[in-house]
TrEMBL record, chain A:
Residues 38-147 form the Aldehyde oxidase/xanthine dehydrogenase a/b hammerhead domain. This is Molybdopterin-dependent oxidoreductase. Keywords: Molybdenum, Oxidoreductase. Gene3D superfamilies: Aldehyde oxidase/xanthine dehydrogenase, a/b hammerhead (3.90.1170.50), Aldehyde oxidase/xanthine dehydrogenase, molybdopterin binding domain (3.30.365.10). SMART domains: Ald_Xan_dh_C. The keyword Chaperone does not apply. It holds the Pfam family MoCoBD_1. The keyword Oxidoreductase applies. InterPro entries: Ald_Oxase/Xan_DH_a/b, Ald_Oxase/Xan_DH_a/b_sf, Ald_Oxase/xanthine_DH-like, AldOxase/xan_DH_MoCoBD1, AldOxase/xan_DH_MoCoBD2, AldOxase/xan_DH_Mopterin-bd_sf. The lineage of its organism: Bacteria, Pseudomonadati, Pseudomonadota, Betaproteobacteria, Rhodocyclales.
UniProtKB/TrEMBL annotation, chain B:
It comes from the Bacteria. InterPro entries: 2Fe-2S-bd (IPR002888), 2Fe-2S-bd_dom_sf (IPR036884), 2Fe-2S_ferredoxin-like_sf (IPR036010), 2Fe-2S_ferredoxin-type (IPR001041), 2Fe2S_fd_BS (IPR006058), Beta-grasp_dom_sf (IPR012675), Diverse_Oxidoreductases (IPR051452). Keywords: 2Fe-2S, Iron, Iron-sulfur, Metal-binding, Oxidoreductase. This is 2Fe-2S iron-sulfur cluster binding domain-containing protein. SUPFAM superfamilies: 2Fe-2S ferredoxin-like, CO dehydrogenase ISP C-domain like.
Length: 807, 164
């Protein structure tokens, strides 16, 4: 038997088997777009199935209450209503959702009691959504109110009411990490700057809410779920667990999604629609979450955080230690993996800096707010805001320019690969060069002069200079110490060449906006030497797809490239054996270049990829022994060289470390507290830019979400835990008027370890923008001796800082 | 609620006569009765603008309009942009593709319909005028920069086409 040949994944574009890449690295038009601008993409609500019913969900108006009785008689007798689902059905058929850490899960509908406003209580399947909603009005629910647990202080008070009685506490998790000699560096510091910060809850809010169509096959006892699913296989496993089905009896078909940003996937809505299908003898049931439902209880609410943090600083400005205590309000349980986002900062705890020691204490608390889910960035946006704000405060106390203080502390280019105290290894970068480039582009000195002039006129103008590292290509090992043990995140594809040389790439995920189908087509077209329009990218359903995760963790562009490169290398090796056999040569004598497999010593002898595929599919008599008639290959990529964490969470977790420095200028209106952003500059370095236009889109989109989080967006709850935000009138997603049109440039330090040298780049801007804006705002406020350490720095909050008593 | 009313509408040049419930929204009518799924629904409160269409040339929120209110009207949706004869994208559509004016594409039909109204009325809008026109459409992906570029490009292409 032939020894298996190693699969080689190029780490540079110039290693692709092409004279010069035609697509990789170019701002090519996206293959996704013609259908999207035509309005023909099949978002889930565009699909109808024969016999389909429509689901509407009655949700709890109370944050905490025992359900005394539910009367659905009148609803069931309404014409057009086919089934009603309550907690009794759910208790009979389901298990509570899987959570991290385990044991903090809810059922998909309230069983016995409700734990947050918006929790599903009753669901109806009817001939139309209109009738289903009519039926909800006929349902009678009697509640016995329980005292709400409104915030972490209340939750941790002695004798507090319990959100989950069986847990005996409202503390979901509490642990600390110590990295280095933290007590010594703080004892030896010339200066310690410390503050408390409050980051209020924000969320993903894609323009498309969640939706699904579920169909239970009663003969086979299996389930098919079509819908807006971000991580299809993960979703299938979760549904199998909650619906008590074997995992191979749940099939998830992921449709194109109108944005995701974390938390797209609606496990509760899926389970409810599935159970209604089960109750209606297997009719398909569609559930489309509306915006009120999304805002009350959908996936994507994140980061409800209280921080106390301190920096240890030497007189020369060297930062030596960083201490953080976090209390995170998780809401009603741990169902959405919002909990573990508190651990994401471990991947870049000390940012861009050579900080030698750090300490992190985190306490995750259950309250009667809605459960939290992942949101783009998954934890670092608030963490970076804390670190960068303290850097600015230290600079003010030392009377050093804040940009200069950062520059003195950057990890130096020659120190890569660099292991941060919290354990992760940064692959590469040149932080000072990025910093210098953006300061030059912004003409930083001119901005400071303009600021001095404005201050002399009594105006409140501020400048923020903030640098961050974006951990890219997430790995489960980053979360092993908080309840998700594992190393590696498989992402698989199948690359198939047909008899005419067209190529199909089958992936396990669907469109969400980032442009990964285009990246896939770019990579495969350059590798196999075909045109991009000869490539089709197709989504495989979970029952046949290779292991995959899909979008999440600034990972997919890199991961899918790695998988395609692996599959293409397998194809190259097989094709070389076929060509060698036909040409009486050895496979090692055959090379692939520009879509042609040819003899290295006699390049005039060769065959195109299409010709080889044709031979394989149609002339088995010509194939060498042992070669299958199959011009297709699968490959499942995961980041190389990952390891298990130690007891302090230290491991090589995220594969890549992109970085950026943002420079922003703001002005605050004294009379209204309104912040305007006259200028915004970004220089980033995410290694090889597979599609520069898509990278810029990711940056600018992250800026917009960062503007929202820093200035406008907030899930407001009152003291009784009633949400005060339920429409886009209240939850203020920035419009074109609020988002600055940024000036951008970039440097390229290719990753030495990632496919094609590309680094994850989907989250860097939202990691940076909130910190940059808050630093700029506090810079503007500093002459007044006032500061704001709470987000969003909304007009009313800033007005109170401006006009209230001095702190 | 089950009383139905007859309406006559012209959508993208095609006349329809349908019996609809008085409470049926125009968005649901277009999407689920006429199967024109390109008009998307993002909030149902008239805030996000994803469902924007043109009614007799004026932009309107189809989520806040009842189908019966459109009786007698001429409606244009995103499906009406592409040239039916040639299959070519409308210059606005092509500009959104070329200038990377979209990511997930869910809000895009609404942005393009708003842009169509703007450029019909003002072929040479300034950036401020573009922002004013698009201020009622929310995009969560792009940060609007690609959208602004797309509208500028579309305006320039439409002017060139008109001059030719």
């Amino acid at each position: 038997m032939r020894p298996l040949m190693a699969i080689e994944i190029p780490t540079r574009p110039d290693q692709l088997p092409t004279t010069a890449p035609r697509f990789v690295g170019k701002a090519v038009k996206r293959i996704e777009d013609p259908a999207l601008v035509s309005g023909t993409v099949e978002f889930i609500d565009n699909l109808s199935l024969p016999g389909m019913l429509h689901c509407a969900i009655l949700r709890s108006p109370h944050p905490h209450a025992r359900i005394v009785s539910i009367d659905t008689t009148a609803a069931l007798s309404l014409e057009g209503v086919e089934a009603v689902l309550t907690g009794d059905d759910v208790a009979r058929w389901c298990a509570p959702g899987i959570t991290a850490p385990e044991g903090w899960g809810n059922y998909c509908m309230a069983v016995g009691k409700v734990r947050f406003v918006g929790e599903p209580v009753v669901a109806v399947a009817a001939a139309s959504r209109y009738i289903a909603e009519d039926a909800l009005e006929l349902v009678q629910v009697e509640y016995e109110l329980l005292p709400p647990v409104a915030n972490p202080d209340e939750a941790m008070a002695p004798g507090a009411p319990l959100v989950f009685e069986d847990r005996g506490t409202n503390v979901i998790q509490s642990r600390s990490y110590t990295w280095g000699d933290i007590d010594r560096v703080f004892a030896e510091a010339d200066r310690v700057v410390s503050r408390k910060f409050r980051w209020n809850r924000v969320g993903a809010n894609p323009t498309e809410t969640f939706g699904c169509i579920c169909q239970w096959d009663l003969a086979d006892n299996s389930l098919t779920c079509r819908g807006a699913y971000q991580t299809p296989r993960f979703m299938a496993l979760g549904r199998a667990a909650s619906l008590k089905l074997p995992a191979n009896k749940v099939k998830v078909i992921s449709h194109a999604q109108g944005g995701g940003f974390g938390g797209k996937g609606g496990p509760r809505g899926t389970d409810i629609a599935a159970l209604l299908s089960r109750k209606t003898n297997g009719r398909p049931v569609k559930y489309i979450e509306d915006r009120i439902e999304y805002l009350l209880a959908g996936g994507g609410q994140s980061w409800d955080r209280y921080y106390e943090a301190a920096l240890a600083v030497k007189a020369d400005g060297t930062v030596t230690g960083f201490r953080v205590r976090l209390v995170d309000d998780q809401g009603a349980g741990a169902e959405g993996y919002g909990t573990i986002s508190a651990a994401k900062p471990l991947a870049a705890f000390t940012g861009n800096y050579r900080i030698e020691a750090a300490f992190y204490d985190m306490t995750l608390v259950a309250t009667n707010r809605a459960p939290t889910y992942p949101y783009r960035g998954y934890g670092p946006p608030p963490h970076n805001l804390v670190l960068e704000s303290l850097m600015d405060i230290a600079a003010r106390e030392l009377a050093v320019d804040p940009a200069e203080l950062r520059r003195r502390n950057y990890i130096r280019p020659e120190q890569f690969p660099y292991t941060v105290p919290s354990g992760n290894e940064y692959d590469s970068g040149n932080y000072a060069a990025v910093h210098d480039r953006v300061l030059e582009m912004a003409d930083y000195q001119a901005l400071r002069k303009a600021q001095a002039k404005a201050r002399a006129e009594g105006r409140l103008v501020g400048i923020g200079v903030v640098s961050t590292v974006e951990p890219g290509v997430f790995d489960w090992n980053a979360y092993a110490t908080v309840g998700v043990p594992g190393v590696g995140v498989p992402e698989g594809v199948k690359v198939a060449v047909d008899i005419l040389g067209n190529v199909t790439v089958a992936v396990g995920f669907n469109l969400q906006g980032q442009g990964q189908f285009t990246v896939a087509a770019q990579v495969v077209a350059d590798y196999l030497g075909v045109d991009m329009n000869s490539v089709r990218v197709a989504t495989a359903s979970t029952d046949v797809a290779m292991p995959h995760f899909g979008q999440g963790g600034s990972r997919l562009g890199v991961a899918v490239s790695g998988a395609i490169l692996g599959a293409c290398d397998k194809l190259r090796q097989t094709f070389s054996r076929v060509v060698a056999h036909l040409m009486h040569a050895e496979p090692e004598q055959v090379e692939l270049i520009d879509g042609r497999l040819q003899l290295k010593h006699a390049p005039e002898h060769g065959m195109s990829v299409a010709e080889v595929a044709g031979v394989m599919l149609a002339r088995s008599d010509l194939l060498p022994p042992g070669v299958e008639p199959c011009p297709e290959a699968t490959y499942v990529w995961t980041a190389p060289n990952r390891n298990l964490p130690d007891d302090q969470g230290r491991c090589r977790s995220y594969l890549t470390a992109a970085n950026a420095t943002h420079v922003v200028q703001v002005e605050i209106d004294r009379d209204t507290g309104q912040v305007t952003i006259p200028a915004y500059f970004i220089v980033d370095d995410c290694g090889t830019r597979l599609n520069p236009a898509s990278v810029e889109g990711q940056l600018q989109g992250g800026v917009a979400q960062g503007v929202g989080a820093a200035l406008y967006e907030e899930y407001v709850y009152d003291a009784q835990c009633q949400p005060l935000v339920s429409t886009f009138v209240d939850y203020l997603v920035p419009t074109i008027h609020e988002v600055p049109m940024t000036t951008k440039d970039h440097l390229v330090t290719p990753s030495p370890v990632a496919p094609l040298g590309a680094k994850g780049c989907g989250e860097g801007a939202i990691h940076t923008t909130p910190a940059a804006l808050l630093c700029a705002i506090n810079d503007a406020l500093s002459p007044l001796g006032r500061e704001i350490l709470e987000t969003p720095a909304s007009p009313h909050r800033l007005w109170k800082v401006l006009h209230g008593p001095c702190a | 609620m089950t009383t139905k009313q007859q309406i006559r509408v012209t959508v993208n040049g095609t006349p329809y006569v349908r019996e609809v419930e008085a409470r049926l929204t125009l968005a649901d009518f277009l999407r689920h009765e006429l199967h024109l799924g390109g008009t998307h629904v993002g909030c149902e409160h008239g805030i996000c603008g994803a469902c924007t269409i043109l009614i007799d040339g004026r932009s309107a929120r189809s989520c806040l309009t009842l189908a019966v209110q459109a009786d007698g009207a001429s409606i244009t949706t995103v499906e009406g942009l592409r040239n039916r004869e040639t299959g070519h994208l409308h210059p606005i559509q092509q500009s959104f593709v070329d200038a990377h004016g979209l990511q997930c594409g869910f809000c895009t039909p609404g942005f393009m319909m708003t842009t169509l109204e703007l450029l019909n009325e003002n072929p040479s809008p300034s950036d401020d005028e573009i922002k004013e026109a698009l201020g009622g459409n929310l995009c969560r992906c792009t940060g609007y920069q690609g959208i602004l570029d797309s509208v500028r490009l579309a305006a320039s292409r439409l002017r060139t086409a008109q001059d030719a």
